[in-house]
Amino acid sequence: xxxxxxxxxxxxxxxxxxxxxxxxxxxxxxxxxxxxxxxxxxxxxxxxxxxxxxxxxxxxxxxxxxxxxxxxxxxxxxxxxxxxxxxxxxxxxxxxxxxxxxxxxxxxxxxxxxxxxxxxxxxxxxxxxxxxxxxxxxxxxxxxxxxxxxxxxxxxxxxxxxxxxxxxxxxxxxxxxxxxxxxxxxxxxxxxxxxxxxxxxxxxxxxxxxxxxxxxxxxxx
Length: 221
What we know:
By secondary structure, the protein is mostly helical.
């Protein structure tokens, strides 16, 4: 005979595990830019050999340091905003107050680098255009999210903050858009590289929009 209490307990345990699937996946995806950023900071700290690809970082290191540190914290902390239990308490508000300046710092430093750094030829003008579009979009999304929460419009706040996070997570997805191309065709041209980068941002935004429309955030006790 089945113990209904045991069944309920098992179902509750499964539900609790499921709520951690999304933040765990987001942290896993964030590891790509986090590791790359850590390697860049190590390179700067140890005074690695200056090459054409990294000279701009050694010449003006502050923007890239701000970008890496802010983006790492933004992606890591932001993943836990998707845990329903944490959204009910002080964590969500406290973390949100940190995430806004971190997200803006990551986006604005990225925009600064796109405009003022002497970028390598492999980047190209099309990629510069995409960086400006998505970087600006991230800033706008975060600002609109703040405006919405100040009006106590929490549904709108949620949608804009998710969009901003999706853009910020683009570097993680871009690794997966590049790897198949590199394996199949080798080093992409500047034009192809721009679209592979754009694909990472667009995929994340598409997933965010799907989640917004089909997965209401439910509290699980």
